[in-house]
Design a protein that fits this description.
There is one protein chain. It is globular, with a radius of gyration of 16 Å. The strands form two sheets. A six-stranded antiparallel barrel has the order 1-2-5-8-7-6. A two-stranded antiparallel ribbon has the order 3-4. It has 133 residues and is mainly beta. The N terminus is likely disordered. Helices cover 4% and strands 48% of the residues. A hairpin with a 2-residue loop joins β1 and β2. The chain has one domain.
């Protein structure tokens, strides 16, 4: 785990750094797809972007945001079947806590036991990404 001690009720996933997630590659995240549907996605990779100077932006609602010095992308592997749509979803992790992440389908990976590794084979797992810029 990173140098900081994370407490479940104090964490917001969207504000975390890459090293918080790096320690949890291979662990499951629960993604609430609808009021009655939750799916499990496994964190398979944390990929760092280029270090850059921070920039501050004004938002339409009058608030401001800053970009990250160290952007990164989470790659999550979903269960086989049709992918969920690109959207913002409530996400929970047993240790890291919860938050809302913008998740985008990124590709497919042959699932264990898949017979036909093509794009129409629903036995292929979907890879998703969540970008932290």
């Amino acid at each position: 785990m990173s140098n900081e001690t994370l407490q479940h009720d104090q964490c917001v996933l969207s504000t975390m750094r890459h090293d918080h997630f790096q320690d949890h590659v291979g662990s499951p995240f629960q993604v609430r797809v609808s009021d009655d549907t939750t799916c499990t996605m496994t964190l398979v990779e944390v990929k760092l972007g280029k270090v850059r100077a921070r920039r501050k932006f004004s938002m339409p609602d009058g608030t401001s945001m800053e970009t990250r010095e160290q952007p990164f992308t989470l790659f999550l592997e979903g269960d086989h079947g049709a992918p969920i749509e690109q959207n913002s979803y409530p996400v929970t992790h047993a240790i890291l806590g919860s938050g809302t992440l913008f998740i985008t389908p990124h590709g497919r990976k042959k699932a264990v036991g898949a017979k036909y590794p093509d794009h129409h084979d629903h036995s292929m797992n979907v890879i998703y990404q969540a970008v932290f810029s």
